[in-house]
Write a structure and sequence with these properties.
Elements (H helix, E strand, L loop, with lengths): L2 H8 L2 E4 L10 E4 L3 H7 L4 E5 L4 H10 L3 E4 L7 H9 L3 E4 L4 H10 L3 E2 L12
Parallel strand pairs: 2-3, 2-6, 3-4, 4-5
Antiparallel strand pairs: 1-5
């Protein structure tokens, strides 16, 4: 699947990276907790989040993600878009909630990021 396919599935706005829409992606992750994203995500994963700040961009940079989708129609500030431009990151905005956006992506064929082999959740 390509980022262009994601744009079509979500009827998303392309805020940055129009020239990179033919980039392939393999899975998606939905989270507002960047520590979870760092623990479970690989480089060809799309990040779907409602969190609009520099931590999201920094996480994408660390993991070499190709695309972030901001849910609920959120639009990041120019500082975030500028940093995304610097690291060749596509930024999309979906008018849908994270839940609905994830469902649309799943229905369209994109699957969730796999948990690491042997993953056992911590009991609190």
């Amino acid at each position: 699947m390509t980022i262009r396919d994601l744009v079509n599935l979500l009827d998303a706005r392309v805020l940055e990276g129009e020239d990179k829409l033919d980039t392939a992606v393999e899975s998606a992750c939905c989270s507002d907790l960047m520590s979870d994203v760092l623990a479970f995500v690989s480089e060809k994963t799309v990040l779907l989040t409602g969190l609009v700040n520099q931590h999201v961009i920094r996480t994408a940079e660390i993991l070499d993600l190709k695309c972030i989708i901001f849910a609920r129609g959120k639009i990041p500030g120019e500082d975030i878009l500028e940093k995304a431009r610097d690291i060749n990151l596509v930024i999309l905005s979906s008018r849908h909630t994270m839940f609905t956006s994830a469902g649309l992506l799943y229905t369209g064929g994109l699957r969730g990021a796999a948990l690491p082999a042997g993953y056992v959740p911590k009991v609190s």
